[in-house]
Amino acid sequence: MSFAWTPDRFNRRVQQISQPPRALPSPPEIVSLAFGSPDPRLFPAAGLAEAAATALRDFPAYSVALQYGNPIGNPVLLGELAKKLEKDEGRPVEPGSLTITSGSSQALPLVFQALADPGSPCLLETPTFLGTVRHIRFNQIEAVAVPLDDQGLDVGAVGAALDTLSAQGRRPRFLYTIPTFNNPVGMTMPLERRLALLDLCARHGLPIVEDDAYRDLWFDAEPPPTLHALDRHGLVIRLGTFSKIVAPGVRLGFVLADPAVIERVQMFKAEGVTNGFASLVVGTFMKSGGLASHIEVLRRDYQGRRDALLSALAREMPDGVTWTRPTGGFFVWLTLPPQADVARIAARMKEEQVVALPGTECYPDGRGSHHLRLAFSLQPPERLAEGACRLGRAIRAGLHK
Amino acid sequence: MSFAWTPDRFNRRVQQISQPPRALPSPPEIVSLAFGSPDPRLFPAAGLAEAAATALRDFPAYSVALQYGNPIGNPVLLGELAKKLEKDEGRPVEPGSLTITSGSSQALPLVFQALADPGSPCLLETPTFLGTVRHIRFNQIEAVAVPLDDQGLDVGAVGAALDTLSAQGRRPRFLYTIPTFNNPVGMTMPLERRLALLDLCARHGLPIVEDDAYRDLWFDAEPPPTLHALDRHGLVIRLGTFSKIVAPGVRLGFVLADPAVIERVQMFKAEGVTNGFASLVVGTFMKSGGLASHIEVLRRDYQGRRDALLSALAREMPDGVTWTRPTGGFFVWLTLPPQADVARIAARMKEEQVVALPGTECYPDGRGSHHLRLAFSLQPPERLAEGACRLGRAIRAGLHK
Fold it and tell me: What is the structure's pLDDT at A27?
């Protein structure tokens, strides 16, 4: 009599899928530019400690936050977040249009599941966030890739993809885009392009999932309004997160959308209310003004890191390599020339102890081999320079045979 | 040109399912015995505040907890929890066999999804936790009901259900049970029954999902070992939670099972790592000994509430009404006589402003109309007595026409 956990005892979906790359800590000799992890030295620990102490003395507030509660989210955080979003967007947050999630990592599959059935098509801008590629695949949604150009999502290509699907009698359930400080490319869609995209999507009745994790972290000038702020039809679903401006470990994000969408999103939120304790602490941190001033600190700091990485790339990269110059966010997107031996470069990067995200992780279809995503968020300026130097040596080894 | 969020724009599953009953706060004139919410006056706010202050001064610890991280969970909490479980179960926690979840509310669907495909059958003890009924239904798993008797799950009935399915060429993916301080019934399965159940399941290769939310809250004597502690085949998956012993709003629970199960469970955890911040705070609270002494306080307090409710029921209930006498946990299960007019009782309960959970919520198939679940966790003793008094009046109105 013996029992074994053979593969047939599990859900068929998990039998085919491998674990995604995880942002785990790497040993100090390695320079990791792979993940969009914020630098822990920038976590507002003292501010959170003070907020926790204040909040845990306030019985009416903590008795709600520590209890089971409304799946829409903790009222203190919802109130503070609505104020921030109203200021950001210049329009009121309607009742029922906001819900708290466990980071935008949870918001993504909640929204994808709420909007699509297994087998439904969606339009996916590419390259894109690796988590999105994984969540779409895991939920058995069909991703129709639409390319970016240097101003963001190519609206003409969206129209063409819609026509192709329509000719097959199919309607995509949503379009996924990261218009501001794009992950992985780093660019931002200008206002005119935003308006053209909204116009096209409204005409075709195509909901837009606007993933907006980096908006607060602008360097040179404030970015254009969100698609959600510009939307007059209620078709934009905006996702946001506290991971980059507070810390990933608070596990707080949000969805801002038509109440009909929020209602459905809730139904996929298995754990009911989301992180009441962390919500109360972050809500209290916001209320005190702590978050707003912390964001100022982050902007200056990450701007310095971006500058350090861009200067180092200009110094270290051989001819033929190109890269983007982000005006906010965490990422630079590097393009290798077509003749580059990418396998050799990858091998040399291992020897040099420098890590970047392979571009293939940012596509649903195996493309991206001649791209690398470089995150400048985790490493201080001197390590970014060192990383660029090591990367330069590795790339040169794959260009000159 | 107009856009509308018509039902066909959403996942088919959410078009049919209504929102579950939620443990929302009720106005003070109502005596709610409906939900297994702990009393907020028993939340260890000072202990959590102290733990947060300590933890947020310790850079190495908080830099890990506030970062993205390993989906298995925060190392501080995993370490403290493993120590507690090893003490509870008298056996080592094997590496890779424990993962943190967002309460057991999240653990349930993660485990159900990992073990079953849509359409797969499972065996479900009934009556059961209402969240379980909902998660099984939402994940399109077929629930085959197996009854409880006064010693817990009826092992003979499990065997019969297995035979029936086997004759149809079907194999249930798991058996779900709450053997200790059962929700909603309140009873505990004795040791002999546990061994008999394990023996049967091992012979049939049937995994057991052991939901164990209330174990620490025993009143009269320590409960028998968990099924997981007694299992020599690796087929028991134990779920637990910090919701009842710390607070629901920390959103922390766990799964303890064979590493092959844990690995698959992770893949359904969309948000990656679970609540690092709350994990660090609760882990630090455990490390200081705060949780262990808090559990002692809770035991005495909830025992007093159970006693108050049982005495009040003995005073207030008319002849023909019966109820269970739990030795731990949060619940009493009330049975009305067959001739009771349940619609009239429900209407009178509304007038009397007393709320209990209708027994029908605890079955997957509409049964349970002559039962009510009474939770003694949220209300202090004097309100429990008042609730029983109101309930007695309502029930009498439905018995004597």
Answer: 86
What are the strands of the beta sheet with B98-101, ordered from one edge? B98-101, B253-256, B236-241, B208-211, B175-177, B121-126, B142-149, B152-153
Can you tell me whether residue B299 is helix, strand or coil? helix
Considering only alpha carbons, which residue of chain A is nearest residue B203?
Answer: A1
B354 contact partners, CB below 8 Å, separation of at least 6: B30, B31, B32, B33, B387, B390, B391, B394
DSSP state of A272: S
Instruction: Report residue B363 as tokens.
Output: 């079955």
Residue A24: pLDDT above 80? no
**Residue in chain B nearest A14 by alpha carbon:** B264
Q: Minimal Cα–Cα distance from A316 to chain B, Å? A: 30
Q: Which residues of A117-126 are buried (b: 16+ CB within 10 A; e: fewer)?
A: eeebbbbbbb
Token pair of A153, please? Answer: 């999502």
CB contacts of A21 in chain B (<8 Å) are none
Q: B398 CB contacts (<8 Å, ≥6 apart)?
A: B336, B340, B341, B342, B344, B345, B348
Looking at beta carbons, which residues of chain B come within 8 Å of A233? 1-3
Report residue A298 as tokens. Answer: 């982050």
Interchain proximity B277–A105, CB inside 8 Å: no
Q: Which ipTM value was assigned to this complex? A: 0.95
On the CB side of A3, how many CA atoms lie within 13 Å of its CA?
A: 20
Hey, what are B145's tokens?
Answer: 């009901």
Tell me the pLDDT tens digit for each residue of B277-307.
999 999 999 999 999 999 999 999 999 999 9
How many CB pairs (< 8 A) connect A and B? 254
Looking at residue A271, its pLDDT comes to 79
Q: What is the pLDDT of residues A258-293, one digit of tens each?
A: 999 999 998 888 877 889 999 999 999 999 999 999
Nearest-angstrom CA–CA distance, B14 and B11: 6
Two structure tokens written together for A278: 């962390």
pLDDT of residue A70: 87
Residue A328: DSSP 8-state:
B
Q: Which residues contact B112 (CB under 8 A, 6 or more apart)?
A: B122, B135, B136, B139, B141, B174, B209
Residue A111 buriedness (CB in 10 A; 0-12 / 13-18 / 19+): buried
- Summarize pLDDT for A134-158 with one digit per residue, the tens: 999 989 999 999 999 999 999 999 9
Distance CA A250, CA A270 (A): 18
Quote the pLDDT of residue A12.
87
pTM: 0.96
- B62/chain A closest Cα distance in angstroms: 8
> What tokens appear for A217 in the block?
């972290």
CA atoms within 13 A on the CB side of B188: 25
Q: Which residues of chain B have pLDDT under 50?
A: none
Q: Cα separation of A25 and B316, whole Å?
A: 61
Quote the Cα angle for A347-A349-A350, to 5°: 65
